[in-house]
Amino acid sequence: YRPGCSEHYVIHVLRDDPAFVKDLDFVMENQDVLVLFTDGVNEYENKSDEQYGKKHLAEVLKMMGTSSSKRILNAILSDIKSFSQGVPQQDDITILVIKRNKDVDYIPEL
């Protein structure tokens, strides 16, 4: 975030929200998976107006959690497409899948 930078406007607005997490520290162990996504994922609706929800996402992660981050991402996108029953996308979808593959405590300088 940089004050006055319009590209970070949303983050700037959210910074004063009590629910906004300013700092988060955690340790990813070997084979842990972190999935970050926008609301376009869990709020995707099918023909019955049901939302995809976090439950569907969790089910995909349970099935694919041992796979590579690329395969996990592709499985999520495939599941959303199947769930949607052909309903066009109404919101942006952004998904970031990070998987720790090696048991290394640091990243050496390049």
Record keyword descriptors for this entry.
9% strand, 110 residues
Rg, rounded, reads: 17 Å
If you average the pLDDT, what whole number results? 81
Kindly state the number of beta strands.
2
Largest sheet: 2 strands, antiparallel
Unreliable stretches (pLDDT < 50, length at least 5) are 1-9
Task: Give, in spatial order, the strands making up the sheet with the most strands.
Answer: 1-2
% residues in beta strands: 5-15%
What is the CA–CA distance across the termini? 26 Å
Summarize the helix and strand pattern as letters. HEHHHE
Structural class: alpha+beta
Tell the overall outline: globular
Count of individual helical segments:
4
Share in helix: 25-40%
Description:
- With 110 residues, the protein is an alpha+beta fold.
- Helices cover 35% and strands 9% of the residues.
- Strands 1-2 form a two-stranded antiparallel ribbon.
- Helix 3 crosses helix 4.
- The chain is globular, with a radius of gyration of 17 Å.
- The two termini are 26 Å apart.
How would you summarize this macromolecular structure in one to three sentences?
The chain has helices spanning 9-14, 39-42, 53-64, 69-84; strands at 33-37, 95-99. It is α+β, with helices and mostly antiparallel strands and 110 residues long. It is globular and about 50 Å long.
Secondary structure layout:
Layout: H1 9-14, E1 33-37, H2 39-42, H3 53-64, H4 69-84, E2 95-99
Antiparallel strand pairs: 1-2
Helix pairs in contact: 3-4
